[in-house]
Description:
Helix content: 25-40%
Shape: globular
Oligomer: single chain
Strand content: 15-25%
Number of domains: 2
Distance between the termini: 22 Å
Largest sheet: 7 strands, mixed
CATH topology of the largest domain: Aldehyde Dehydrogenase, Chain A, domain 2
CATH class of the largest domain: Alpha Beta
Amino acid sequence: MVNLVTPMPTGPLVKQMIDREEVRKVSFTGSTEVGRTLLHACADSVVSTSMELGGNAPVIVLPGADLDLTVAGALQAKMRNGGSACTAANRFYVHGSLHDEFVARMDAALAEMPVGPGLDRSNQLGALVSVAERDKVAVLVDDAVAGGATLVRGGKPSATGAFYDATLLTDVEHGSQINVTEIFGPVTAVVRYDDIDDAVRMANDTIYGLMAYVFGEERAAMTVARRLEAGMVAVNRGVVSDPAAPFGGVKQSGIGREGSSEGILEFLEEKYIALTE
């Protein structure tokens, strides 16, 4: 039996639900901030939890990467659902030998993504979830440009509605606000690097660890993938979700796994509440 309850006000009533002795499991899909609050609430009763939380996925483009494959994969990783996905690529670390060509190809590809209502089938990029979210993305982009980033394309919110142009930034500083924030929008922020060890260090320099992407010659890409602090790493592909593979993160991107045998065993014979923002 599955019971669906939508409590209002959410916080106090969910706390009452969690405190009931019948509840043995709480799963949550949403932001890291709300996940922390729920973990505190579950601690009183030592309730088992599974958390699928926020992400800030890096993309590492290695020297020698096939740019046809890389750009196609990067577009999938970045622009699927308009960038509003926990697994969306946020931070692009591109080797200096490929940087200019990668940027030029991404620019051309993003130019082919007109933004507007989905009822017009010519549009390829729809609205963000809210005007407030649109404004958050705009602030991040404006802050990056003010800090020295170069706006190659986009950077414009709509006058009405929650639309934001497909945007490409270069000369982004690692550790800048747009680099440490889950953008959750159609913004590609590119950091140039010259040393692979630096790229790995920057990719791991985050509280999040849900998803990462690596593009390059297979042996080199697999070596880098093993060094990344992420629950899931896609090598030479832009989508990693698969019902046969466990889904979940490390660090402050979550606890536990969904999907595959690992996810099934985690929930086996448990009574639980599944929460989503």
